Amino acid sequence: MGPSSFVFHGISLGLVAVCNGYVETVIGVAGERVTLPCGYSVKTYGVTDTCWGRGEVPYSKCSKMVVSTEGDKVTYRQSDRYKLLGRVRKGNVSLTIINATEADTGIYGCRVEVPGLFNDLKYNVLLLVGREKTLNHGKC
């Protein structure tokens, strides 16, 4: 495998291509909480609507939505496992998944709605969840 690939639970993972924005990788341990980062400047954009979904951020809204907000109020939550524990009013809309499982592995997308055409902020995060024994914590 090349320098851009690695093996996770016996699955070879190469470069992850996304169409919008960039992708950040977060590694979590099954049974623990894991936080996927997302935030914006309230000073620049004001308190605005946001959403998190499974899969890359599409052209509008979020695909397979797990959490959404209107301003600083959470208006939709697919499960009590999905929480926004940061200071939403201050622009911290990082998604925390309680009691993460290996089934949570995948790409998540965060959209921050900004007025105007094609102005939304989009963040894609690759979450890898494994059992502690199987994670090498950066060791080869």
TrEMBL record:
Residues 3-113 form the Ig-like domain. PROSITE patterns: IG_LIKE (PS50835). It is a single-pass type I membrane protein. PANTHER family: T-CELL IMMUNOGLOBULIN AND MUCIN DOMAIN-CONTAINING PROTEIN 4. Pfam families: V-set. Belongs to the immunoglobulin superfamily. TIM family. Residues 1-21 form the signal peptide. Keywords: Disulfide bond, Glycoprotein, Immunoglobulin domain, Membrane, Signal, Transmembrane, Transmembrane helix. InterPro entries: Ig-like_dom (IPR007110), Ig-like_dom_sf (IPR036179), Ig-like_fold (IPR013783), Ig_sub (IPR003599), Ig_V-set (IPR013106). SUPFAM superfamilies: Immunoglobulin. This is Ig-like domain-containing protein.
